[in-house]
Amino acid sequence: MRLSPLAVPLLLAGCTSLPWSQDAASGTDAGQPPLKVPAPAQDPGPVVHEVAKKPAPPSAESLGKAAAVTLPSSFLPPPRASEYQVWRCTPAQDLLMAFSEGDAEASHDWLRLWSRRHAYTLERVVSASGERYQANAGASPAEKASGGVKVLPGEEGLEVWFKGSEAMLQNARGNLECVQDDRRVIHPTTQKPLLVAQGNEPGWQVSLDSEHNLLTLTAMQGLLESPHEAQASERSAEAEAGARSSGVQVVKLPYRVAREANDSRVLKAQLPADGKQGEPLQLVVAPGACFDSMQGAPYPLTATLTIAGQELKGCGEAFRYQSAVE
């Protein structure tokens, strides 16, 4: 269909009645307020996340008042044990043993055996002759098969058969023939510290308080001196003909347990300002047959004292207290 020339103006005229035609022509709308464009948002800046503050380390005073470290059973002799026994074995190996002394309430006796690096608990079992002890004797076959029983290196199949002053030790690795050689009497008493460790050349001793996290270090004079102080002491020694060699230094320090690896205990402390200022002290104690480097006396613990990077070896002994775990 074709529109006539007259119809075109009429159609355009009709368009002027559309709502937006007047706005487009006048550029304003008298009936409504002008449109407000919001201002651009201000830059909030970088997002800062608050970092949780680390708790402040305990003060020396609070450490010194804390309860004493808890000792594992492998540090301790059996209840009512009267002595440490030394057994020399072939092939060459030295073992330390301590036997419980049963009473009317005990269903069986047992012993604790220390090798160079481990401590084992063995229970007495029925034997046709002599005395026979086995590790994990009370565990059922199902517990052993399921892995529910923790087995230490060398403990699998561990058994000791005593006949007088001789013993046969066997495990999954082989056999040892042993003879009793030495002994040292155990004196359990509440008057002693929780633990004592000591070494020689230079002489030192660390004892742990049985109630609080406090250790007492007794050391030959010079061990706790700074290099400058040591040089001054040497010059003084030349003039005094070695008078300083007889002296000792004693300090009491709060300690903390830095970490625990298996049955060992790692204790750390800080030397006072009048010694090696700011220098750390660390004592590592672990179960293991140990023999004094001068007298050969047997001990059930190995000890390593580190002072300002200087490592000193020694032995130790723990005493049975209510705070210790058996």
Automatic annotation (TrEMBL):
<feature type="domain" description="C-type lysozyme inhibitor">
    <location>
        <begin position="87"/>
        <end position="175"/>
    </location>
</feature>
<feature type="region of interest" description="Disordered">
    <location>
        <begin position="22"/>
        <end position="47"/>
    </location>
</feature>
<keyword id="KW-0449">Lipoprotein</keyword>
<protein>
    <submittedName>
        <fullName>MliC family protein</fullName>
    </submittedName>
</protein>
<keyword id="KW-0564">Palmitate</keyword>
<dbReference type="Pfam" id="PF09864">
    <property type="entry name" value="MliC"/>
</dbReference>
<feature type="signal peptide">
    <location>
        <begin position="1"/>
        <end position="24"/>
    </location>
</feature>
<dbReference type="InterPro" id="IPR036328">
    <property type="entry name" value="MliC_sf"/>
</dbReference>
<keyword id="KW-0472">Membrane</keyword>
<dbReference type="InterPro" id="IPR018660">
    <property type="entry name" value="MliC"/>
</dbReference>
<keyword id="KW-0732">Signal</keyword>
